[in-house]
Amino acid sequence: MRGSSLCPCLRGERFDSCCGPFLSGSRTAPTAEQLMRSRYSAFSVGDAQYLLDTWHPTTRPAVLELDPAQRWYRLDIHGTGAGGLLDSDGWVEFSAFYRHPDGGGELRERSRFVREGGRWFYLDGRVST
Q1: Mean pLDDT over all residues of the chain?
Q2: In a domain, 110, yes or no
Q3: Region 21-43 average pLDDT
Q4: Which of 15, 32, 34, 63 could link 20 by a cystine bridge, Cβ 3.0 to 4.6 Å?
Q5: 3-state DSSP call for residue 17?
Q6: Is the overall model pTM greater than 0.90, yes or no?
Q7: Reduced to 3 states, what is the DSSP secondary structure of residue 19?
Q8: Helix or strand or coil: residue 122?
Q9: The CATH number of the domain where 72 resides is what?
Q10: How far is CA 94 from the centre of its chain?
Q11: What is the pLDDT of residues 76-94, one digit of tens each?
Q12: With contact defined as beta carbons under 8 Å apart, do 52 and 42 qualify?
């Protein structure tokens, strides 16, 4: 993804000034919501390593294979709780929309995050139907 392109997380900023620095490792996400947005961007650009690196070790899978045919194109944030600069945990509820040759769809999830050693990690999520 080019740095001058709009960020996949749809905050309206360029990738290189939004989620790009998190995916490159030059910055860490300051809030649970920003980590969730950067993880969505990682799904959008196919960066499985970033997803594993930001997944809490107690719930992280050993391997993560992304489907290259699946295209993520829209992210809606429905709500957040805690997850700020002084919090140790938080949650983000969102919908992520995708297209696939087999059909498109929506993933709605309430994700939980924890902060350890000054870094936010994705812990787990509850998918809604």
Answers
A1: 96
A2: yes
A3: 98
A4: 15
A5: helix
A6: yes
A7: coil
A8: strand
A9: 3.10.450.50
A10: 10
A11: 999 999 999 999 999 999 9
A12: no
User: In a 3-state reduction of DSSP, which class is residue 15?
Assistant: helix
In a domain, 6, yes or no: no
Report pLDDT digits (tens) over 28-38: 999 999 999 99
In DSSP notation, 31-99 reads SHHHHHHHHHHHHHHT-HHHHHHTB-TTT--S-----TT-EEEEEEEEEEEE-STT-SEEEEEEEEEEE
**Do residues 15 and 23 make contact, with C-beta atoms less than 8 angstroms apart?**
no
Residues found in the chain: 129
Task: Count how many domains the chain has.
Answer: 1
Q: To the nearest 10°, the Cα dihedral for 19, 12, 65, 118?
A: 30
Q: What is the pLDDT of residue 1?
A: 53
Q: Rounded to 5 degrees, what angle do the CA atoms 71, 75, 39 make?
A: 75
φ/ψ of 57, rounded to 5, equals -60, -25
Residue 2 resides in a domain: no
The separation between CA 24 and the C-alpha centre of its own chain, rounded to angstroms, equals 14
Looking at residue 122, its pLDDT comes to 98
- Identify whether the C-beta of residue 103 lies closer than 8 Å to the C-beta of residue 70: no
